[in-house]
Design a protein that fits this description.
Elements lengths: L1 E9 L8 E10 L11 H4 L4 E2 L9 E2 L3 H4 L11 H15 L5 H8 L24 H18 L1 E11 L1 H11 L2 H19 L5 E6 L8 H7 L4 E7 L3 E8 L2 E8 L7 H28 L10 H18 L3 H4 L4
Parallel strand pairs: 1-6, 3-4, 6-9
Antiparallel strand pairs: 1-2, 2-5, 7-8, 8-9
Amino acid sequence: MLIYCGIDEAGYGPMLGPLCIGLSAFRIDDAEPAKGPPDMWDLLADSVCTTARDRRKRIAVADSKKLKGSSGSKLHPLRHLERGVLAFTCMNNGLPGTDTEFLEMLDRSGSIDVDAPWNIDPMDIPVAHSEDTIGIASSMLARTCDMAGVRECMLGCECIDVQRFNEQVQLFRNKSGINFSAIMRLVQQVRERWPGEHPRVIIDRQGGRQHYLRPLQMTFPDARMEILGESERVSRYRLDDDSGPLTLSFETASETTHLPVALASMVAKYTRELMMRRLNCFFTREVPDLDPTAGYVQDARRYLIEVEPVIKRLGVPREQLVRSL
């Protein structure tokens, strides 16, 4: 048996909107850990593929940047992200009817600022598909997982809203510390889900960092640690403590080689897009001709200028809307 997990983020660089760190984890009954993780695209090939266009209408699971469509397209830009994320979500939880229900299923941190005016009212989902379409995709996926011996699927997401992000800046002094801390909380959720087992967790590596032993020692001070390898592409560690063994691999471009990381990327991106939809819908009601924003620095500055009268009128604190880093 293998517990095979992936973690990736979305929204690391923007000025507006949350930082979202996604998780997907699977229990694969027939996999032998000594042989390394299986190719889950091959394992689930009857239902899953890596491309947005598929003649068999399988579910696309890939790096989220490849699946989000253009906002100028006739088709909804979230159609591929949503179909994949909600198909996997529905296998265990049923279909959420609102973005709030979706967050409650995935995010145990309670990190959304519910006092922000754009977060008060839930918004309906799905946004790009009918409930029946998602149900059909999820049923197809569940059958394939059952035949492949994939017995459990766990999805999670830490959605760190702007106000909490700014509060954590005071603690960590940089974005990488905020990101790493959230990753470790998701790792802990995996260990709680499968106590005593030996999860293998693949984490998409951002930037040029190659050595992770020190932050891991600070996170798991009572664990025995072994460096299994540190290279330009992969940094891998084994930890043993009272919760059992754990292997963590920080890998570059891991969303192209590990389906759980690709799916985690999709979960993070879809969650962030839902939160940005809330923000844009709120300010568009106040400024009808306002063009929506994805939150990245240059366009965020334009957006903030246009919504400044609304911000002043409502008394929205800057730290609730704009990241300090």
